[in-house]
Amino acid sequence: MDEKNPRLRLLKYFGLTHDPFETPVAEQELARVQDIFYTYYSPPASQEEFIARLRAPNHAFVFGVPGSGKSTLRLMVDADCRTVMDGTLPITYLLGEDIQRPLSLPEHGQRLSQAFAVDLTLAIIEQFNPLKPAPSQEQIQALQEQVQAGGRPLRRLLQTVLRKIKGEEDIDSTWGLSKDWHIIGKAPVKYVSGSAELGELIAALLSETTHSSAPIGWETFWKGLQTARLWHFTRFLLLVDEVDARQRKTDEMARLAAPLLESLSQMEDQQVWGKFFLPPELRKNIRSILRERYSKDLNSPPFLSIMMKWDEYALRQLLIRRLRAARPASGVPYTGLDNLATAGLNLDAKVLQAAEGSPRRLLSIVSDLIDVHTRRAPDSPFLSQQDWEGYLQKRK
Amino acid sequence: MSNDWDTRLEKYFVDRPQAEEAIQRWLDSPSEKRIFSLVAPPGNGKTWTLRRLYQKWGNPGNRLVVWLDAPVLIRREETQDVNRMIDAESFKQWFDEIKSRATQHCRSLQPISTLADLPAQIGALVEMLCNCSLPASPLLIVDGYDEITEKQAETLGLRILKSFLERECTRLILAHRVEWKVHGLPLYKREVLFLSEKAPLSPEFALCQFEILFKEKCPTDPALDPKDWMEQLKHYRWNHPFINHFLFRRGLKGECPRLLPLTPQDFYECCQAVIERPDAPGGPRYPRLTEDEFRLLHRIAKELGDQWPETDCTSLLGIPSLWGNAHIDRLFNAGLIVPTTPFFQISDGIRGVLREIENLNDINFGEPR
User: Do B328 and A13 touch (CB under 8 A)?
Assistant: First the structure.
C-alpha cells in the first residue's frame, strides 16, 4: 500500500526502514525507536573510550552544551553496565522538568531511593538465570522492600511481566520480556526470557506480605545498597542527568546538584560513584564546591572531568551510523547525505558546516531539510539546491 | 566444522603471519575491545586464517576455543520467525561439543540443564568458566556471519553471542565483509582488522600455492616456475587465494608439466565460482550472476578506475542512483561491489579478473564447462 505521509514516502523511496532523523533528543528517540536506539551511538572520535572511563571508580563530571550528546552517553553507560555483568549496577537519577525548585538533601534521598529500587529490580530480572540456584528467602524479602520503594510504575512493569510469563500475553520474540521496559522509561539492551522460576520470583515480589510504614528516604537508599550486595552487586554508578532541564539558571542548577556533591564521600565509602552530566556553565560552581568540600580540583582523583566536543569527522560518522541503522543490510549502504541528493550539491559538507559542532543541530538540520523537500512536492525524490535554500530561508 | 569448500581447499592454504600476529596480540592483551572483526571480501582467506588459528590455539590447548559456523546453526530458510531461526538440534550438538571441551579446561563445571532457553544455558556455562580461573580467555570464533540474513544475524547476536559476552572473561572473533553490519551487539567495542590491508597477498604467496597444486597434479615432474605464465595476465595481481587456486587449476588441466593459457571463459567461470562457492552446509553462498549482471559488472570494471564515486558509476550506466537498482543491489549483496567510503570499488581480485576479459563475445554464458 502506498505511504500517505510524504516524509515517510520519501524515506521509503530511499530504502530506509524508519526515520533516523525524526527527533534529535535522546530521550524522545529512546521512546520512539526503542529497539534500535543503541545502534545509533556514535561517540565523538577523540573520546572513544568515554564509556570505559566512566565505568571506572571515580566521580566524573561530563560537561557539554545542550545537544552535545550527554544524555546519549549516559544511556550508553547505563546499557553497557546492564550488558557486561561485572557486578556494577547503574542507577539513573534524573533531575528533570518535574522538579520546580532545588531539592533539599532529604528530598534527594526520597527520589534517589525510588530510582535505585527501579534499577535494582530491573537489573535482577535482566540477569536472572533459571539455571542458577534459586534466590534465598533473605534476598527475596529484601527485594520486596525495594519493590515497595520503587512505586507504581515498577509494580506495573512487574505485573505486565508476570502476565507474559504466565502466557496471558505474548512475549516479544526478538527482545523477550525486555520489550516492556518502556513502562519505566528504559530501552531493551538484551533478550530477556521468561522462565517459570523468574515468574515465581516476580509473584513473590508482588505479594502483599510485607509492608513497611517507614518513610522512603536516604535510609531506604543505604538499605537498598545492602540488598543489592545480597544480589551480588558490588559497585554502583549514580548517573545524574537533566540538571539543565527547564532552562534553569546556573545558580539554580548548582543548588540542585550541591546536596549530592556534598554526599560524595559518604557514597564513595559504599562504592557509589557519581557520574554527573552537566552544562558547561556549571564547571566553575562544581570546581568551587570540590575545592571547598574536598580540597580537590576537577581532575584530581577520585574526580574526573570530561568536556564533550565534536569535530567534523565525528559528526559525519554520526550521520553515516544513522543512515546505516535505518537501512537493511541488503543493498548498497549509504555513505552520507550526498547519496540522497542531486549530483554536485555537496550536501554533506553544507550540513556539517551548518551544524557547528553540535550533533543535535545536525540532526535538526537534516530533519528540516527533509520537511522542506517534501512540502514543496518535488518532481525528483533527491534533495536539491532548492531544498537547501528553502532550509536556509526557514532558518532565517 | 563441516566439509565445505573452505575445508576442501585447506591444503592449498598458505599462512598469513602478519594477520595471525595481530589477532594473537589482541587475544593476549587485556583489551576492552572484546570483539575482533576480521574483515575481508569474499574468498580472501578469512575462514582459512581463522581455521589455522583455531587449530593452533586448540592444540596443545591452554585456551578453550569454540568454533561456530553461523549458517549451520541458523535455519537459513526461516527468515521471519525469530523463535525458529536457531536450529535446536544443531544448537544441541554444538553446545554439547562445547560443554565436553569445556570440562577439559575447567574441572568444576556443573551439569547444565537443557530445559532452559539457549541464552540461559550459554550464560550458565560462561559464568562457570569465568569463575574457573582459566589461564586464558575462552574464545568464540564465528564464521559465515555475513552469509545469514540481517534478522538471522540479530537473533544470533541477541540469543547466543550476547550471552557469551555477558561476562568479562570472554572474547569473540567475527569474520565478515566490510560492508556487513554487526547485529545485536552495538554496545561492544570492536577491534577491526582489514585482512587485505594488514596481510596483503604477494606473488610469493601465489607461488607457494602453485607449488602445492603442481606437486599434487604432477608428482613425478621437476618443479615448474609459473612466473612467465602468471605474468601473461595484465590486470590480475595474484592477490586473492581463491582466485589463484581456481586459475592455477585451470592452467594445470592439460598434460603434465604444461600450463594451458587462460581464456576469457576461464575468467568468467572464475568470477562465478567466487560467488557460488559452497558454504558450511554445502549450498552456494550466493546465486550465480545472470548474463546482464555479469555484463554490467564487467563494464564497471573496464570503464571505471579502481575506486570511483557514485556519480561516475551512475553516469556510466545512465541510472539516477546506485540505490534502489536491483542489479547493483545483487552485485553488492554478493560482495562484488564494496564501499570504500566515500568511494566504491569492485572487490579486490574480481576486479582484475574481469579486466582480463577483452571481449564478452568470447564467453559462453551457459553452463560452466
Answer: no
